[in-house]
Amino acid sequence: MARHSPQTDRIVMLMELLAENPGSGRTLADIARHLGVAKATCYPMVVALTESGWLIRHPSRKTYQLGPSLVSIGRAADEATDIVDLARSAMHDLADHAQLACVGFLPSGDDLVVGEIVQPVGGRRGTLGLRLGDKVVLAPPLGAGLAAWYQQERLDQWYALGEQELGVDADTLRARYDPVLAVVRERGFAVECLLQRDRSLADAVSALRRPGIGGSRSTFALREARNLLSAEVPIGDVDTDLDYRPISINATVFGPSGEPAFVLCLVDSPEPVPGRTVLALGEAVRAAAAEVTAATHGHAPAVDSGGDRI
Length: 310
Description:
By secondary structure, this protein is of the alpha+beta class. The protein contains 11 helices and 13 strands. Pfam families: HTH_IclR.
């Protein structure tokens, strides 16, 4: 787990503060008050960012604004998120077909970041309480659809994080999840459901929501959610004769090197649905993910007949 960095948090908070009203700058006193530190503490940071071109200082008003060096960074970020634009049409089709919200996640280290949310034409549906820019810590019981495609070292890290967050031995989690991951690879999509004894994930997310850095994002730590969610969330084989309450039916979009680049999710079913419907929705999500993968000139990793990566 990465160690918390207050100085990094301050830089992000500062950038978000200045981005809220880019046409009007902020004085050093304003910035210090927003960051909750003394002016002497944030002054070296502001000077360094100004020297790098990330900030500019107005010569008479003595205020700071976003600087020209951020333009090229913003362009690079825009190019990096082209996959969201490529996926948007498929997400609209999925949402309309399923009459559920469709959420697109971008992998980012140990997190998934909400890159897009699309609602069906018929009206607004639940989104598990998620908003654009929110981050979800990627560890069991969530993320089987992505973990299925991890290389072994990264998969070991996923299980280790699950041990830390759930208080369940990593080998026990591996024995529970490995067969599920094989099924996910073979059929091309993952299903995550709540058991009857569990609270809704939307309630869990609502309970965990905190003001994020700069007040515009939230991070959901599974160490706080472990008593709200069961380790039985991921589903392997789906019985067509049973009813399920999906919180997510998802499939992975792959980049040119076969790496996971985006995750398409139908989320927050308001009521139980038959297993055959779950499978049909899963096939729709899988097909949409394959379409976006092709649009990005990507390819899925090869899988053998037993559901193992080749």
